[in-house]
Amino acid sequence: MAGAAGSDERKVATILFADLTGSTALGHGDDPERVRARLERFYDAMAGEITLAGGTVEKFAGDAVMAVFGVPAAQEDHAERALHAALAMRRRLQEVFGDELAMRIGVNSGEIVAGSPRAGSSFVSGDAVNVAARLEQAADPGEILAGERTVAAVRGAFEFSPPRSR
User: Fold this and answer.
1) To bridge 109 with a disulfide, which of 25, 26, 149, 156 should be the other Cys (CB 3.0-4.6 Å)?
2) Measured in whole angstroms, how far is the alpha carbon of residue 105 from the centre of its chain?
3) What residues does 10 pair with on adjacent strands?
4) pLDDT tens-digit profile of 17-37?
5) What's the Cα-to-Cα distance from 22 to each of 9, 109, 143, 157, 166, rounded to whole Å?
6) Model pTM?
7) Given its phi and psi angles, is residue 56 left (phi above 0), alpha (psi -120 to 50 degrees) or beta?
8) CA–CA distance from 101 to each of 20, 21, 86, 92, 138 (Å)?
């Protein structure tokens, strides 16, 4: 695996995963073109909030989005930026779709390996990415779950509910 690994770089970053819940209702009985147009509105709205907070959209997959903060440009406040983006994404979803759609969000900070972007593939990998995905899957509709390292990095800047037991 020596080939492309030369461009890989270890960094500490924050990963955000967001996924629509109940999105099968988004397309149930609807014309595929209308579903696609609705998804495009979702993509544009979420990408706008991520970019505004200084993040990079890593990928859209179906009705989910993955974003990274602190890569490729280093940001000391990447965890704070990701949480601001998560809150803004939740607000924006409400503005665009009302109560029609809800979203689960997982945010996690940690060491990742960043490589070159490749079509259809992630440019960041590592356990921090996997944990962010698991947090998103564990979140209830409308909820944002943050990992321990994210919470520690932003202590005082955000209020959190008590930790969940595993």
Assistant:
1) 149
2) 7
3) 113
4) 999 987 555 665 677 888 888
5) 37, 27, 14, 31, 25
6) 0.88
7) beta
8) 7, 7, 15, 11, 18
